[in-house]
Specification:
Chain lengths: 165, 211
């Protein structure tokens, strides 16, 4: 059971072109964990496939991004992650994070609540407009502004100053 | 201290998996999910039909273990339609611009005999028509046919009594209504009926009839 051949070809072309970017967004939303990001993207693309006949080409990218945000949020809410994680130390980081600032920032992003983290990632890492981020998060633009501002403020408080020798 | 916004703007993460085989796996997962969803919908229809049997005396056939398989159709296409999926070994045997019939091997239907009546028993018929609809007594299951809403149900066999024949109505890409009629003796699941319908394309040569 599959889509019309033309639509399936369009879906395949879209995934071929956009998968890497979606994995990147997912990885940022799950604090750099590439395995978890892959799970998120697979879930998101399955949902996108089901919705594909109703998705207009001009909105496909926004729709896919929304699927990724939803899947990442669900991932966070999953049974094994329901309890709030309060840590004395920064969480462990994947070994492949490229430099210290990035490693630190990914760890700090993990301490933000999911919606706040998503607002920060979409606005300040992905560079989306407030309207685009609101569409991805399915919330008001005002909510995006407040969530991203709070998240940014929190990161500023936590991001360490360099050591002075 | 580095500016937090600068760090965010330049944040890098390890690249994920990529390549044609990864994309093919994504597509395969989507197909399986689509199949599961439609199969679940078809199961729901079976339950509703069973419940309706109590009220209006539906003739519900037993579940058949020897269900047909659907395969790609490579034979001659009917006028007005493109057919990409049929039960294995079946063929399109009769066609005019508003309808075609698909029958199993050995049924004896001949496309070159347009004047002769063709029994629809044991055959799937497909008609382009905008007037027919499911009777009010029929349970209706809404199904997804190529992203458009189809309605699967039963006609009346007699007053107050539903037939076990299934009717599927769905709009083609241009909004024209297509009817698929599947008699009880054709052992296709509801999900397979939807699969079959998804393989039907109405061409510009088709002519709509009333009915």
């Amino acid at each position: 059971m599959k889509l019309y051949p033309d639509r399936e070809r369009e879906f395949t072309d879209f995934v071929t072109a956009r998968r890497a970017a979606l994995v990147r967004t997912a990885a940022l939303l799950v604090s750099g964990d590439t395995a978890k990001a892959e799970d998120v993207v697979q879930t998101a693309l399955t949902n996108l496939y089901l919705a594909w006949p109703r998705v207009r080409p001009e909105t496909a990218e926004a729709y896919a991004r929304r699927c990724v945000v939803n899947a990442a949020t669900d991932e966070h809410r999953s049974l094994f992650r329901r309890r709030e994680q309060v840590r004395a130390e920064l969480p462990e980081l994947p070994a492949d994070a490229p430099d210290d600032d990035d490693r630190t920032m990914l760890a700090l992003l993990a301490t933000l609540p999911p919606r706040q983290r998503a607002a920060v990632v979409l606005r300040y890492v992905e560079g989306l407009s407030v309207a685009e981020a609101a569409d991805a998060l399915r919330c008001s633009e005002g909510n995006v502004k407040s969530q991203s501002a709070r998240g940014l403020q929190r990161l500023r408080e936590l991001f360490p100053a360099p050591l002075t020798l | 201290m580095p500016d937090v916004e600068d760090v965010l703007r330049n944040l890098t993460v390890a690249p994920g998996r990529d390549g044609p085989e990864v994309v093919a796996a994504d597509v395969a997962r989507g197909r399986r999910a689509l199949h599961r969803r439609r199969f679940a919908a078809a199961g729901g229809l079976a339950a509703v039909v069973a419940a309706a049997a109590v009220g209006v005396g539906v003739v519900a056939g037993p579940t058949s273990p020897d269900r047909l398989s659907l395969v790609s159709y490579t034979g001659q296409q009917p006028v007005g339609f493109q057919v990409s999926t049929v039960p294995e070994g079946w063929k399109v045997v009769s066609s005019d611009p508003s309808a075609f019939v698909v029958e199993p091997p050995g049924s004896g239907g001949e496309p070159g005999d347009p004047g002769a009546p063709l029994s629809l028993d044991g055959r799937i018929s497909v008609t382009l028509q905008g007037l027919s609809k499911l009777p009010a007594e029929s349970p209706v299951t809404k199904v997804d046919v190529n992203g458009r809403e189809g309605r699967l149900g039963h006609p009346l066999e007699a007053e107050g009594k539903l037939s076990a024949t299934r009717w599927l109505f769905f709009p083609d890409a241009s909004g024209r209504q297509v009817q698929v009629r599947v008699p009880e003796s054709v052992k296709l699941s509801d999900a397979q009926v939807v699969d079959f319908a998804e393989g039907i394309t109405v061409t510009r040569d088709a002519a709509e009839i009333g009915g």
